[in-house]
């Protein structure tokens, strides 16, 4: 089964993807995490995308297509979750081609109001090593500034600052939100209210995917 998780930056895709991976055996492909890992390691891809990531702009489609194709080839678990892909109509079409033999079963959109997205993104911190997600207000680490899992430093993402957040939300509204119509017409779209706490959102999500 392939499930696509969509939603604006800050909607909680990464948090829910992690919960579904830990508790429901999903293998997740989080394109943002993969790209940041490339940037950190200064790979050929990393050098190309580094400044785009910091600016909050989309990375060229071709790079994403290759990442997703490789991810699907290397997949070891039965159920796959895509977090952060597709993000525009071109990527939707690419994904249709890539998954021809094993089509997407459902697309779940996490719906969160813009004010709440900004609030979450400005207080978000991530682990510099394992990419675990924290929030200074709703989900603080046990020890300030340290990851609960690996004790490494927590950092603020370069794109989690006010002006970059606005850029990302604008791109989301202009380009990514349009993919919902496509999946609605395909009868694959479910919308989940993502404004609540992570655990409540997870329970709702699990019900939908379980019914898949
Ligand atoms: P968020 O959803 O909070 O913006 P992500 O971690 O999913 O964060 O993505 C971070 C950045 O990675 C994006 O702003 C963009 O630069 C790049 N990126 C991730 N997925 C894609 C994609 N499908 N297409 C283009 N760029 C992407």
Number of E-state strands? 8
What ligand molecules are bound, each kind once?
adenosine-5'-diphosphate
Strand/helix succession: EHEHHHEHEHEEEHHEH
> Major sheet, described briefly?
5 strands, parallel
Can you give the mean pLDDT? 94
Separation, N- and C-terminal Cα atoms: 9 Å
Q: What would you call the shape?
A: globular
Largest sheet strand order: 2-3-1-4-8
**Percentage of residues in strands:** 15-25%
Percent helix among the residues? 40-55%
Coarse structural class:
alpha/beta
**Poorly predicted ranges (pLDDT <50, ≥5 residues)?**
none
**Radius of gyration, Cα only, in angstroms?**
16 Å
Helical run tally: 9
Can you describe this structure?
The strands form two sheets. Strands 2-3-1-4-8 form a five-stranded parallel β-sheet. The protein has about 210 residues and is α/β, with parallel strands linked by helices. The N and C termini lie close together (about 10 Å). The chain has nine helices and eight strands. It has helices spanning about 15-25, 30-40, 45-55, 60-75, 90-100, 115-120, 160-175, 180-185, 200-210, and strands at about 1-5, 25-30, 80-85, 105-110, 125, 135, 155, 190-195. Bound molecules: adenosine-5'-diphosphate. Adenosine-5'-diphosphate binds near residues 10, 59 and 168.
């Amino acid at each position: 089964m392939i499930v696509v998780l969509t939603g604006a930056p800050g909607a909680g895709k990464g948090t829910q993807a992690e919960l579904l991976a830990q508790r429901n055996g999903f293998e997740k492909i989080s394109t943002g995490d993969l790209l940041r890992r490339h940037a950190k390691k200064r790979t050929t891809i990393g050098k190309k995308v580094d400044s785009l990531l910091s600016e909050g702009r989309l990375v060229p489609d071709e790079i994403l297509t290759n990442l997703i194709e490789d991810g699907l080839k290397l997949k070891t678990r039965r159920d796959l979750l895509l977090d952060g892909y597709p993000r525009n109509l071109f990527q939707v079409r690419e994904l249709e081609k890539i998954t021809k033999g094993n089509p997407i079963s459902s697309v779940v959109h996490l719906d969160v109001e813009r004010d709440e997205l900004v609030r979450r993104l400005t207080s978000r911190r991530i682990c510099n090593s394992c990419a675990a997600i924290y929030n200074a207000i709703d989900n603080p680490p046990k020890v300030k500034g340290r990851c609960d899992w690996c004790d490494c430093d927590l950092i603020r993402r370069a794109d989690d600052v006010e002006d970059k957040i606005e850029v990302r939300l604008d791109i989301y509204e202009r380009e990514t939100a349009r993919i919902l119509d496509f999946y609605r017409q395909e009868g694959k779209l479910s919308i989940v209210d993502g404004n609540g706490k992570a655990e409540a959102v997870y329970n709702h999500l699990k019900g939908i995917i379980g019914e898949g």
